[in-house]
Amino acid sequence: MEIINHIEVAVADVEAPRRFYEAAVEPLGLSLVVSIDAAQTGRGTPRYGFGRDGYPSLWIHEEVGDRLSVHVAFTAGDRKAVDAFHAAALAAGGGDNGWPGIRERYHPAYYAAYVFDPDGNNIEAVCQAA
Known about the structure:
The protein is of the alpha/beta class and about 130 residues long. About 20% of the residues lie in helices and about 40% in strands. It has 3 helices and 8 strands. Strand 7 and strand 8 form a beta hairpin.
C-alpha cells in the first residue's frame, strides 16, 4: 500500500513538529526512519524523514520567512487507523480540522480525519475501503 512517494514540509521550528509527527503517524505504521543533522544538510538545520520499511516518504525541515502551508494525505489501512491518527495527533498538540468520518463529497467510502500540525499544515489520514 502506497502512502505517498514523499513530500517535504517546511516548518518554523523543526523540533516541535518532529515530536508531533512521531506521535501522529505511529498509528498509521509510520516512524522516524532518517535523521540528518544540521551539519550534513548544508542548510544549518536538521531534516527528519518519516516512512515505512526504512524509506522516508515525508520530510520536514526548518525554514525561516513566509511560506505556504501544505496538505498531506496519508493512506490508512482501515478506519480504526484513521481514528487513532486523529486521536494521537490531537494528543500530540495538533488542532482539529475535521473529525473522523465519511466524506461523501469525495465518494461514499472516503473515510478521513483532518488535523492541523503545530505550524498550521493540513494533515489528513484516509481509508477508501468500504
